[in-house]
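Risk register update: the risk of archive-format incompatibility is retired. Evidence:
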Amino acid sequence: MKSKLLSIILISICILSFRSDKLAYQIYDIKGKTSSYEQLLKSAKDADIILFGELHNNPICHWLQIELTKDIYEFKKDNLVLGAEMFEADDQIALTEFLLGKISDKTLKDEVKLWPNYTTDYKPLLMFAKEKHLPFVAANIPRRYANMVYNKGLERLDSLDPEAKRWIVPLPMKYNANLKCYDDICEAAEGHNSENLPKSQAVKDATMAYFILKNWTEGKTFIHYNGSYHSNNHQGIEWYLKQENPNLKIFTIGSTEQTAIDTLAKADIGLADYIICTPESMTKTQQ
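Archived output:
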């Protein structure tokens, strides 16, 4: 009897100890069920295109990005292509020169429009590409052109010089204002240039999709790193990719933060094929 009681006490202590653990993240599947990194990797490894939606200042997202990239590389080797929202298309030449060892780290910082958190969050991805001789695509539209759309509308892009148009999606681009991702932006803007704001988001999504497809061929896997809002709910970049090639196997990862992460918020169920959920109190990186 004493032995049985002792066993119950020990089990209770173990359960209470487990509940007191502070998890850094929890992964959920598209249905909101608790999952794991192993399941995420198993599902991602055969994709044509992986859209890794991050929270820009979340260190867990950035850590999992480099870990997933290393693990996918073990499957794909030279058939892996990397690319990111955080590098603008007109910086591609300098970016490639850095990967090939033709320019220094200092020159890259002088020549390329790097984000404030480049050193901690995106440089590891770039250095991995350099080490493994993988291409890294600067996929985003130059910010000046996205601002042009915000201020003057999509039609303003028609006035660009042909040389400038090399760095954006071919015109005219498709735009569906009824997509939730753009409708939500319009609603949140509450009249503050609400018509053009979602268009400036769409031209980013369309341009990133364009450069992803331009650098992807059958048999390869392209991992693209972007803000989660650019691929949430299988819209944004994915919508544009599917417009061009509906047969693509696209795998999405979304990111969200909650006060407690033991259950995924209903609003985030279906956000992506797999969702990384981290505590709101998670330390932030520089942005």
